[in-house]
Amino acid sequence: MAPLPGAELVQRPLQLYRYLLRCCQKLPTKGIQEHYRHAVRQSFMVHADEDDPERIQQIIKRAIEDADWIMNKYKQQN
C-alpha cells in the first residue's frame, strides 16, 4: 500500500521530493510534519549530486517504502 496515490508515477528526484512533502502534510501533528519535512529536505540535499540512474531509482524506491512505513506507523496510532 502506497502512502499516497501516485507513488507508482514517481520517476525523477524532483517528483519524489514533492511526493514526500505531500506525504508529510498527511501526518497528524505540525511537529511531526515539520520533523519529517526537515528529514526529506536534508536527504534531498545529501543526494543532490547523485548521477547514476540505477542508484537514483534505488533511492526513489527506498524513500517510497520508508514513507509507506511512516504513514502506516502514524495511521495505527490514531
UniProtKB/TrEMBL annotation:
<dbReference type="InterPro" id="IPR045291">
    <property type="entry name" value="Complex1_LYR_LYRM9"/>
</dbReference>
<dbReference type="Pfam" id="PF05347">
    <property type="entry name" value="Complex1_LYR"/>
</dbReference>
<comment type="similarity">
    <text>Belongs to the complex I LYR family. LYRM9 subfamily.</text>
</comment>
<protein>
    <recommendedName>
        <fullName>LYR motif-containing protein 9</fullName>
    </recommendedName>
</protein>
<dbReference type="InterPro" id="IPR008011">
    <property type="entry name" value="Complex1_LYR_dom"/>
</dbReference>
<dbReference type="InterPro" id="IPR052151">
    <property type="entry name" value="Complex_I_LYR"/>
</dbReference>
<feature type="domain" description="Complex 1 LYR protein">
    <location>
        <begin position="11"/>
        <end position="68"/>
    </location>
</feature>
